[in-house]
Amino acid sequence: MRSSRSSRPRGLSRHFLAGVVGIAIVGAALVGCGGSQLGAPPAAAPIVTNAWVRPPAGPDRPAAGYLSITNPGGTPDALVGASSSIAMSVEIHETTTDSSGMTGMHPMPRLEIPAGGTVKLEPGGYHMMLMGTGDKLKIGDKIEITLQFEQAGTVVVEAEVRAG
């Protein structure tokens, strides 16, 4: 004699339940294989080295920040911003020389970091300008700078204050 009790909800056939389970398994496999943005791997974290800051030439002048950024990932990324608790603002700049020999600094909204490549922020080229530091920076101090990348997100680095 058959029992009238069943472990499945009343009205649902065994074939229907098997179909639902199958759809769930296939969906999970697609997400795990990159079939959806939800399953996309995060960008590789950039490797930041040689971070240092030159103190300002006066209390109303900006400090300058330098470092090297290596992108170990297989896709390009970009430095799109920076901040520090020691500065009112931090801007990414490029030093350029025009055809007449005039040299100037220009803010950049983003600095491309090629896949597998390294970009150096150094005197006379790309650099950061730390605005509004006043006279807070002393040689030998260490400060934190937060870098914002387009793909990899936030990276916090420690920079030594040095003459240079």
Summarize the structure.
The chain is mostly beta strands and 164 residues long.
Commentary on this structure:
There is one protein chain. The protein has one helix at 14-32; strands spanning 47-54, 63-70, 77-83, 89-97, 103-107, 111-113, 118-121, 126-131, 142-149, 153-161. The longest helix is centred in the first third of the chain and has 19 residues, at 14-32. Strands 1, 2, 3, 4, 5, 6, 7, 8, 9 and 10 form a ten-stranded mixed beta sheet that branches. It starts with 13 loop residues before the first helix and ends with a strand. It is mainly β and 164 residues long. The model is unreliable at 20-37 (pLDDT under 50). Strand 4 (89-97) and strand 5 (103-107) form a beta hairpin.
Number of strands: 10
**What percentage of amino acids are in beta strands?**
35-45%
Name the average pLDDT.
Answer: 83
Structural shape = globular
- Can you give the helix content as a percent range? 10-25%
Ends distance: 93 Å
List the helices and strands and how they pair.
Layout: H1 14-32, E1 47-54, E2 63-70, E3 77-83, E4 89-97, E5 103-107, E6 111-113, E7 118-121, E8 126-131, E9 142-149, E10 153-161
Parallel strand pairs: 1-10
Antiparallel strand pairs: 1-2, 2-7, 2-8, 3-6, 3-9, 4-5, 4-8, 9-10
Features:
globular, single chain, 41% strand, 10 strands, 164 residues, mainly beta, 10-stranded mixed β-sheet
